[in-house]
Design brief:
The protein has 49 residues and is of the alpha+beta class. 35% of the residues lie in helices and 24% in strands. The longest helix is centred in the last third of the chain and has 17 residues, at 29-45.
Length: 49
């Protein structure tokens, strides 16, 4: 399983321990996918599909 990390400076996702000369923070993959699932439901509910 890959660990997804996020740069606190530019908010981009990366697998590297550092980005923009700053340490990246860990993103929990489970929470990330749940949020994505809710986003999909919302988009469907609003009729974006
Ligand atoms: Zn960055």
């Amino acid at each position: 399983m890959k660990l997804i990390k996020k740069c606190v400076k530019c908010s981009s996702f990366t697998l590297k321990p550092t980005h923009c000369s700053e340490s990246t923070i860990s993103v929990h993959p489970a929470k990330f996918s749940i949020e994505d699932k809710y986003g999909e439901y919302r988009r469907k509910a609003k009729g974006f599909y």
